[in-house]
Queue: 4 jobs
Job 1
Amino acid sequence: MSLAGNPSLIKSIRSLFRKKEQAPSSASVQPEGRQRALALPPEEFRRIDAAFERWVQEKGYRMPDVTIKETASRMGCKGAQLHRYCIQKMGVDFRTWRVRQRIEDAKVLLLQEPDTSASHIGRMVGIQDRSNFLRQFERLTGLSPEQWRQNELASR
């Protein structure tokens, strides 16, 4: 059946396109409003930022099995505030940032300690489960920790 021979089908399709063009895209409306809703007041942001920086310097992100709520409590804020801070400052949620930070730490350790096993390095950076460490490392780098280390050491 061709479209030319079915005027009501053509009319329906045109109607769908018109509705699509008239309706505001949720992608264009929601993020701006959502970003505004997530933004912390400046004084609260500065307070959390200072606590967060101390926590990072102390490598608090390496502590295994600690929730955002527990981490926020140590920083003197609530979990929702820490979540909003991470979204506002880093553009990702706390959990995603922490995984990325742990993998960046692991990359440094893989090069500094070439005789240390990848699974031990995973535990050093706070990822206790070997398969979880391997999966996260490969997801972020495209290589296993050992492959990544070999490539980096060979390129030096």
Note: The two ends are 65 Å apart (CA to CA).
Job 2
Amino acid sequence: MSLAAGALFGAGLTISGMVDPQRVQAFLDPFGDWDPTLAFVMGGAMLPMAVAWRRQASIARPWQGDAFDLPEIRGIDRRLAIGAVVFGIGWGVAGLCPGPAIADLVLVPARAALFVAAMLAGVALHRLSRS
């Protein structure tokens, strides 16, 4: 099931053009050659997710599994804010975030390899700092 969900997500990223760093960076440049595609992709993702969250609230347990795996912390704390800033800077500079970067490993590995290596190093550094 996870493989199918990941493949569907990767296909959606590819079809929408979100694996192209120039398209993402063009969205982040409203005073230059602005491309609104990312706004439509985000809007298209928010609608089904809003429905899913509302539906999940009325379901006692998931179809597959014993319980929903939901975050315990619901507020915005310092760690979340710092993580969001680091994520946003990386996304703006590279034009990639984790999903498109993994998809690009298949489509254009030379372009994505450095980003994915840096991302994995960041994950490892985070885990080491939490131990």
Note: The chain has six helices and no strands.
Job 3
Amino acid sequence: MSTISEAIPPPAEPYDFILISTKSFPGSTPSLASQITPLITPNTTIALLQNGIAIESEIATAFPNNPLLSCVVYIPATQLQPGVIDCGASQKTNQCSLEIGTFPSSGVPVGHKRAAEDLASLMQKGGGDATVYHDIQPLRWSKLLVNATFNPITALTRLNTVEFLQSSPGAIPLMRSTMLEIVKVAQALGIDSMNEELAEKHLQGYLKQTVGKEPSMLVDVKNGRDFEIEVIVGNVVRIAAENGVEVPLLGALYILGKGLLEGNRKQRRECI
């Protein structure tokens, strides 16, 4: 498999923006930072369009002087077949959006904030919905209410969202309780916008659906690929431990998810 640095030669002219929309696999070799190094010049803005929490440190350490944008993406994209992506054009709503903020949120040069506004403007001119926030982390935690619950649970059960919620009387209470563990961790970090009402709003949105969705982690499992258990679940568990917050359900999902990941890898090795 070609790496980014092998696939893309150094630019003939400096890039204003590098948008990273790959899955996030911390500790992978070669590292993301090493792969994009040939593309980075002093004024290049790096934008991370990736899921998970606490994903920014590697790039922030490698490129401390470049503007770094942390972005939350809501796009109902589905790969129908190789090379064919349904981006939900027929159901475009305010969920098709890009939420942008600098990393860190404060103490950065004015030019970094301007880079966030410039990226939003470019997206808007292209017909997209993009908004700049002073602090993007509450938005990351909000999306995590869904990603750290529905993703691992559907991946482990091989059921889509509706199928799981209807699978047993305990399914909905389990989903709610797991979301509330995420709320507790975020509140321990001082993120007041994360509360029970927000968690319930997310859950009720899924309970109203009649057609189930297959979250990306479930799709990865079905296709025998690695999935983002570390940045979506593992980092939450670690942050909880650092702040003395008990998260038994998330801890169990992390352990089981790691087991599933290793099982997939074992199966791939045996097929070679």
Note: The CA atoms of residues 69 and 102 lie 4 Å apart.
Job 4
Amino acid sequence: MPAGKPIETLSIAALNRATLARQMLLEREDCAVVTAVERLAGIQTQAPNPPYFGLWSRLRDFDQAQLSREITGRRLVRIALMRATLHLVSARDALAWRPLLQTVQERMLRANRNRNLTGVDLDALVKAGRALVEAEPLSAADLGKRLAQRWPQYEPATLSMAVRSLVPLVQVPPRGLWGGKGLAMHTTAEHWLGQALDTTPSLEAMLRRYLAAFGPASVKDAQTWCGLKDLRAVFERMSGTLVRFRDEAGVELFDLPDAPRPAPDTPAPVRFLGDWDNLLLSYVDRRRVIAGTHRHIYTANGQMPGTVLVDGFVRASWKILPSRDATELEIRLLAPLPRRARKPVVEEGRALLEFAAPGVAHALRFVEAD
């Protein structure tokens, strides 16, 4: 920035609208599925169906078959990446980003299981695990059992987790398909995609993708998104090609110069997001999308439910409850919602039910805030 030019402060409302614009949540867009997933910098996919709901809320005329085709066609894959969690990403992002995020996987292994692997030759374990899953896709349990034949003094689950952390494994269909059932089966990304991992991946390029999908954002926000540490120096190297802002608390934010930053009063429609949507997981400070009093939206068993955006902010959680008589959408409010604001929620909720369960009876009910 030119010397002496003051750094603009962005309000929470301004950050909200900038984020919604990049997340394709201000209006549904006409966009190919693979392109959309890349624009979103991947979609977290703890379960198979949430990415379908996430794309339905963002794309015009989206149906489940579009995404399932890209998964079976190996143009999209489910692989552990950001925060060492399972993500749906394009094939090229999987190959480029896994090497950059390998340290995140290894740190997670050290935190959870490494103490139970004392004495194991990890190079030999990786080689054996890779050979097994490339011979045929295996579940985590079967992989562990087969590895335990060679390392019988170790727990199968520990051996399996080590391979899943140290080897870039993808989950193969039918896991990840709409309505697909069965265990998660794994093989290596290289075997499934027929290509090697990127040998010269660019961390700067990945962080630009993050800003394109989630900016303006702080260094700590980016670290929260990907799980890497000590990114300040990387952002400083990039700073000549970025613009800087501050939030209302004075935290420095980085952004791409030409990225959209709509006016804070830009209308934002009601949107239903799937479980574990990255909109809620990609910032250390989530006030741009959810009020501080509602930050702990996790369920009693630690799951992050689907959420409802009203005027751009999370106002409720939702879940679909199939029953014998009707498929019901339960909308659980986080705070009282004015009656006039409920009509668009009901309309979008009914459209969601038609997407999720067409041709059957539907019901919708609100659960009032405590």
Note: The chain is about 40% helix and 15% strand.
